[in-house]
Amino acid sequence: MHTNLNEPTLVDAILDRVVHSSNKIERKGTRSMRDDIGADVP
User: What pLDDT, on the 0 to 100 scale, is given for residue 3?
Assistant: First the structure.
């Protein structure tokens, strides 16, 4: 993201706001969500 906006300080500020105002969702189960939807994510 830093390379896309070309302003590292602004990107850090945006990410700081997003991370600190986000909610954590806990999923109970034995399988991964990636397995459930078949996503090919490294």
Answer: 59
Which residue do the tokens 């500020």 mark?
Answer: 13
Residue 11: how many other CB atoms lie within 10 Å: 15
Do you know the residue count of the chain?
42
- Output DSSP code: residue 37: H
H or E stretch covering 14: helix 8-20
For 1-42, write each residue's pLDDT tens digit: 555 678 888 888 988 888 888 787 787 877 776 776 665 655
What is the rounded CA–CA span in Å between residue 4 and residue 11?
A: 9
AA letter at 6: N
Q: Give residue for tokens 């996503």.
A: 39
